[in-house]
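>> Question from a student workshop board

For tomorrow's exercise we were told to take the sequence and the ligand below, predict the bound structure, and bring the output to class. My setup keeps failing. Could a helper post the expected result so I can at least see what it should look like? The ligand is magnesium ion.
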Amino acid sequence: MTFCLTRHQPFGYNLTATIEAALYEPRSSSGPGHRPFKAEITGSNPVRGTYNFLEKPGISMISVEEALERILAEITPLIVTVVPLPESLGYVLAEDVISKEDIPPFANSAMDGFALLSQDSQPQDGKPPHLRVTGGVAAGYVADHAVVPGTAMRIMTGAPVPPGADTVIQVELTHSDGPTSEWVEIMQAVDPGNNIRPAGEDIHRGQKVLLRGTEIGPWEIGVLATLGWANVPVIRRPRVAILGTGDEVVDVHEPLRPGKIRNSNSYLLEAAVRQAGAEPQRLGVALDTVESLREKFTEAIQCDFIITSGGVSVGEFDLVKNIMTEQGEIHFWRINMRPGKPVAFGHIGTVPLLGLPGNPVSAAVTFELFGRPVIRKMLGHTHLLHPQADVVVEDGVSERVMRRHYVRAHVEWRDGRFIAHTTGNQGSNIMTSLLNANALLIVPEGGTVIQPGDTAKAIMLDWPEG
Ligand code: AMP
Ligand code: MG
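>> Workshop helper replied:
Here is what the output should look like for this input. Compare the format with yours to find the bug.
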């Protein structure tokens, strides 16, 4: 039996390249003068050729902040669509909502009781006034006659106040013969307007009630329903293509043959994309060939945004950048961070493409930092990033990393402080470091060590963007 290392060509790992890459690892942003790097394809055969993406003097990693700024500069909110009110949850409102009506539309009672004239509630000769009950009005109906001096009308919560009445007394402050009583005694004097909710008390006609750009939650849906918006103009949800890459990657239901691993990234990213509010389209896994990638990208460019995982590093089979160069452009592909140095951003045609690293933890973290804000911007949100908090790192971070280090941690509120615990081995292949993590500790560039008990900034992943 022959032992086959690769499918396409003899194994020839470019050791020099790897060492160069390691040595040439700059420690800070390339600064504003940085020019987008255009990849060069060398060699005659695009499948078997060597692709020289190694860093050269002047081609360096950019900072996380610069990467995010440059990515977001390329993204605009999508177009407006109209959805039925019950489906509008989570969308961003595309128009200001201006009320055409007063809410409530008519003056109504806030209590079950009696509608009367306030002057009739004053005691007479030190005794409670005795009024004739002329009828009743329930919620949903209007009175067929007016309240005149010396009379009262039974009224239920939400019923329109009958003409003539200027006040409502709750039933507990009256005395009568029961529900059909023809008389009522008023046990307490009441002012005009008592227990009456005037028309327009909540919202007046012409009022701007909700602003364009508002995220629609259950409470906004309640207000929209009150105003009669059965259909709501919103920003369309982006469709996001999710593409795995790698000859070694098999699908979740396939048996694991030697050398193969399961495709965790596509499923993780599909869920994260959906959670961010977009519609994921999982396109399977492209082989590490230009042909296979080209075929998948034909499908992917039907979407609003393409997210790939794997194939963006400096290996010989990392071909995603080549396709980007061939069919579009690369704006940058290296970020001064860990996990996730090889993150490519560019376009295929006009569709933005975020090429995430293959290691699952790197893919997960870089999606949170770059992919989720892109989706939120496309959705029309103005708050794109999770808040940060100062946290006490109880166990510390002893590993020295020259790049910005995002350490997965669990943060909880204890004794008046946010206390963080890291989630164990922080290797970019250690998927279990994601479990139980609700925050990313930010360890600054330059080999910073966080001693146990030191304070650090943390991105609070389970706090809504704001
Ligand atoms: P790459 O960037 O393509 O060299 O991939 C880096 C690492 O991530 C390799 O160990 C890959 O096997 C692994 N990897 C790539 N794609 C996936 C995937 N979809 N699911 C799980 N692991 C992956
Ligand atoms: Mg790969």
